[in-house]
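Final report, Chapter 2: Outcomes

The project's central promise was a pipeline that accepts a single protein chain and returns its three-dimensional structure in a standardized token representation, suitable for archiving and comparison. That pipeline is now operational. To close this chapter, we reproduce one record exactly as it appears in the project archive, with the input sequence first and the structure output second.
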Amino acid sequence: MHDTDVTLESRSAARAEIKVCRLDGSQVPVRLRLLGYNGCEFESSERFATGEQISIHVYRMGWIRTRVLSQRAGIVEAEFDKHCPV
């Protein structure tokens, strides 16, 4: 896992832009905390339901479908959809 400081508000070329999109098409600003092979962890002021399907967009890497595992104190843990073509 890699610890990063990435936000939607940051437009620096040195930082990747992260977008989280819900199934209804709405986008949520997040700060990516950890990114690994099986999943990720991000901070958000929005609430996510356990099991909710979301898509995460990493600048220059594309969209990845994920499922929310848990959320505690604004920290959301999600696992990547293993059947998602990346």
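Archive annotation: The chain has one domain: 2-80.
This record, like all others produced under the grant, will remain available to the consortium after the project formally closes.
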